[in-house]
Design a protein that fits this description.
The complex is a heterodimer of chains A (about 190) and B (about 400). Chain A has a 5-stranded mixed sheet. Chain A is built from 3 helices and 9 strands, in the order H-E-E-H-E-E-E-E-H-E-E-E. Chain A has a single domain, classed as Beta Polymerase, domain 2 (2-Layer Sandwich), CATH 3.30.460. Chain A has about 190 residues and is α/β, with parallel strands linked by helices. Chain A is elongated and about 60 Å long. Chain B has about 400 residues and is an alpha+beta fold. Chain B has 16 helices and 9 strands. The chains are: A alpha/beta (about 190), B alpha+beta (about 400).
């Protein structure tokens, strides 16, 4: 299934929530409003035509100085041989190759000053750690997450390092930090 | 007298009082393969709950990626999954090339596949050796590192480095293969292939090893997909899914190879205790994958043309506005890179999807109601590299 077909199905089912679909280019992406995202996620997983059963990646992209943070979800449909859309708990090991049933990326645009979106950890358990990482590094709050803690930085870390306006700490727990990195442009080879 | 009663009769209910205890495993522990810390809530020998704590190796590689050019970021990629540096460089280079529309010359493609598959063997050898050691078999470790040494020597002859290569880069490879490389590689393949059967006899079918790993930490197909498991962990559960086949990239569609998956015990020489999706299956998929990598390498040597090995890359490579997400079949699973460009030499965002990160996230789900001694067997079979988990 092509990204265009996935986008058409989504647009038909959620005419309001699907803001726009940029399916041209190397990264086909459908933008969904934050309020509707959880409902769209359940549909993406459960609709037999789509059956996006694996959440591969969640990336947060800070659009600073625009007041916006994007959360991008990468999905893929893995089709069992024989066409079963959802797998039985433990089918016998099959000698046949699974099929790639199509990929799509979903973009949720959030305001930079208070980025909040409903967690999809109940839809795809893989989202549990991926959302914790996005919270840790970009400060996006996932409502309804089962374990909303930092994951890579220490629990008492201040700030979210992947924000574009993040200020490097001068010290941590009394340990002085190394000299602050130079500005972005000076590090690029001319 | 009292001893007799203890051994012959079960204790009366309530006579023995047990208490839950928190056991801290790691971050410095030989079985955690790096700096992974597991908090185990135990009741006697039984582990009730496992909570992984990660981040001890966090260097925020993604922030570095936003501050340097793609060519400068390749050496950082080496340090993600430090057992498979070639595969990381390859994944990032492919993503940047897709964004910029660069074409790699024919020979460059073959050099890349050779390096990636060699690194896959080297990494699986470490996994095989260390997993034996987790279980208590020390000898296989020495054999594994002996063979790996030949591969590292080949890498050293090619690019001067043994672990962090910075060899596969944007546009192809940074150097051509050295003189005599093809002959040395052909010799190694002939030498190495029969050794795999030897190791299977030494460790894979060993009675104690099978007892420790078969039917331990079984992951169902549904769980494996839901938790985003990829690579040998997914295939160990019986899912025949490999990006080299299911979404071909590079030139993998030119090669013939099989995709090994976990098979039920009792046939094909697999011990009868084995269940699809258990620790033994995940381990055994890696052993079989080494054979397939040898097959791919042989075909590479036959087909490889002479010529250019690197595309003409502008000295200041501008990343066009737009984004790209690309996954390759790394050693531990699907390694993904999201690169967002904005008409500047440095990207706005580099997101790395480390396969070990997602593979490790299933540990709390699997390490529940298992014996304490099974925890290293399960974590070892997932084969995590913390450099990639923490990034």
């Amino acid at each position: 299934m092509t990204a265009q077909e996935v986008a058409d199905i989504l647009k038909q089912r959620f005419p309001v929530a699907v803001a726009d679909a940029a399916v041209e280019g190397p990264h086909p992406c459908v933008a969904v409003t934050p309020e509707a995202w959880h409902e769209v996620a359940v549909f993406l997983r459960d609709d037999p035509r789509l059956a996006m059963n694996m959440l591969r990646c969640i990336s947060g992209v800070d659009r600073h100085p625009e007041p916006q943070i994007d959360v991008v979800y990468e999905l893929i449909a893995m089709r069992a041989p024989g066409g079963a859309a959802r797998q039985e708990p433990r089918p016998p090991a099959s000698a046949e190759l699974w099929q790639n049933g199509g990929t799509i990326a979903i973009r949720v645009r959030l305001p930079r000053d208070n980025p909040r979106v409903r967690s999809v950890a109940d839809v795809w358990p893989a989202a549990d750690w991926l959302e914790r990482e996005t919270f840790d590094l970009l400060g996006v709050t996932f409502d309804g997450h089962p374990d909303p803690r930092r994951i890579l930085c220490p629990d008492d870390w201040i700030g979210h390092p992947l924000r574009k306006d993040y200020e490097f700490p001068k010290e941590y727990q009394g340990i002085p930090a190394a000299a602050a990195p130079e500005s972005d442009s000076s590090r690029v080879t001319k | 007298m009292e001893e007799n009663t203890l051994s012959s009769q079960p204790a009366a209910p309530g006579a023995i009082r047990t208490e839950e205890m928190l056991v801290n495993m790691g971050p410095q522990h030989p079985s955690t393969h790096g700096v992974l810390r597991l908090m185990l809530r135990t009741d006697g020998e039984l582990v009730l709950e496992t909570i992984p704590h990660i981040g001890y190796l966090h260097r925020c590689a993604e922030k570095i990626g936003e501050n340097v050019t793609p060519v400068q970021f390749v050496p950082i990629c080496d340090r993600l999954d430090y057992l498979a540096g070639m595969n990381n460089d390859h994944g990032y280079s492919l993503a940047v090339e897709k964004l910029c529309g660069l074409e790699v010359p024919e020979r460059g493609h073959y050099i890349r596949v050779i390096m990636c598959e060699l690194n896959r063997i080297a990494s699986h050898l470490v996994s095989f050796g260390c997993y034996g050691m987790d279980i208590g078999a020390f000898t296989p470790f020495l054999y594994a590192f002996r063979e790996r040494e030949y591969i590292l020597d080949l890498f050293e002859a090619t690019c001067g480095a043994r672990l962090t290569y910075n060899y596969l880069t944007i546009g192809g490879a940074s150097l051509d293969l050295p003189e005599g490389f093809v002959d040395r590689l052909a010799w190694f393949l002939d030498y190495f292939e029969p050794k795999i059967d030897e190791y299977n006899n030494l460790l894979s079918y060993n009675y104690i090893f099978v007892k420790r790993t078969a039917n331990v930490g079984v992951i169902s197909v549904a769980d494996a997909i839901a938790y985003g498991l990829t690579g040998p962990c997914l295939r160990g559960s019986g899912v025949k899914w490999d990006l080299r086949r299911c979404a071909p990239y590079e030139i993998y569609d030119r090669f013939e190879f099989d995709i090994p998956v976990g098979m039920p015990g009792g046939s094909n020489g697999i011990p009868p205790e084995v269940v699809v999706g258990d620790s033994w299956s995940r381990y055994y998929v890696r052993m079989l994958e080494m054979k397939q990598s040898v097959r791919i390498l042989r075909q590479c040597l036959q087909q490889m043309p002479a010529g250019e090995f690197r595309a003409k890359v502008p000295r200041t490579l501008k990343l066009p506005a737009g984004e790209v997400y690309l996954e390759v079949e790394g050693v531990r699973g699907q390694l993904g890179f999201l690169v967002v460009g904005e008409n500047k030499p440095i990207p706005r965002r580099v997101k790395i999807r480390g396969p070990s990160f997602c593979n490790l996230s299933i540990v709390p789900h699997v390490c529940r109601q298992v014996l304490l001694a099974d925890v290293p067997a399960i974590v070892g079979s997932i084969d995590v590299v913390m450099g990639e988990v923490d990034r």
